[in-house]
Amino acid sequence: MAIIINLDVMLAKRKMSLTELSEKVGITMANLSVLKTGKARAMRFSTLESICVALDCQPGDILEYNRDK
Amino acid sequence: MERFIAPLSIKIIYVLNEIIFWLFSLVLVGAIVFSVVILAGGLKNDLQLHAGLPIAFNSDATGFIMAANTAYDVQIVEAYGKLHFINTPPYIAKRFVITMLFACGIMFFILFTIRMFMRNVRKGLIFEYKNIRLLRRLSYILLGFWGFTKLYSWMMMKFVVSKLHIGTVEFSNQYQNFNYLLIISLFIWALSHIFIVGQKLREENTLTI
Fold first, then answer.
1. What pTM does this model have?
2. Contact B209 A35 (CB under 8 A)
C-alpha cells in the first residue's frame, strides 16, 4: 500500500516503547503491532488522535504517502 | 478478544446434529457389517429385502372413508412405496447393498460436513475461509445426492418396474420428486457466496485499528 505508517520512527524519536504507547492509548499490543508492521487496512480517527496525543505529534508524522509503493 | 457465547439456537442445532451424527455413525457401521455379510454370501436366499420404489403407482382396489356418518368411495393413486423381495436372490441383494452403502456414505459425508460447520460456528468462527469451503462442499454433495436420486429412480424404472407384474397395481411414468435437494444445494451455494462477502468485511473490521 502507498500509505506508510512511521510509528516506529516516532516511537524512537520520543524514546517510547510499544508497551508504553499501548498503555497510554488503550490499544492492545497485537493491534499496535498490526499498525506498526503495515498490515492494517484502515485507521480510525479516534486511534489516530490518541496516538498523536500520546506521542505529541501531527498525523503527518505518523502517516506518509509513497507514490512508488 | 471477547469470548464468543453461542446463542441458544446454535447450541440446539449443534446438539441435535451431534446426536444425529453419532446415531447415523452407528447405522453406517451396521450397514457396513450387513453389507459384508451379504457380499460374502452369508444370508443366501433368506434376505427379505425392502427396496425403495420411487415410481408412482395406482391401485385398482377401492375402499371407503367415513366422514360425517357417510361412506365415500376412495382409491389410492400416485403412491410411492417399497418393494419387498420375498427370499431375495443373492445377485439382487448384492446390487441393492452396494447402492445402500453408496447412499449411506453420501449421507454420512453430509452429516460430517454439517458437524464441522456447526463446530466452527459454535466456537464463534463464523465468517472464516474454512466455513466457506465447508458450505461449498455441502452444496456439491447435495447436488451429487440429487443426481444419485435421479439415477436411482431411472434405474429402478428401467431394470425393476419395467419387469414388474403385480395384479392390482399399475405403475405410471412419474418419478418421486427429490428436487428439494437441488433447491437446498443452490441455497447453500448462494450462502457460501454471502459468507465470502462476510469474510471480507470481518477481515476489514479486524484490520481496522
1. 0.80
2. yes
User: B102-130: per-residue pLDDT in tens?
Assistant: 999 999 999 999 999 999 999 988 899 99
CB contact under 8 A, A34 and B203: no
3-class secondary structure, A65:
strand
Query: For residue range B173-201, what is the model confidence (pLDDT) as tens digits?
Result: 888 889 999 999 999 999 999 999 999 99
End-to-end alpha carbon distance in chain A: 6
Closest CA to A25 of A37, A6, A11: A11
Residue of A nearest to B202 (CA): A41
Q: Looking at this predicted complex, what is its ipTM?
A: 0.76
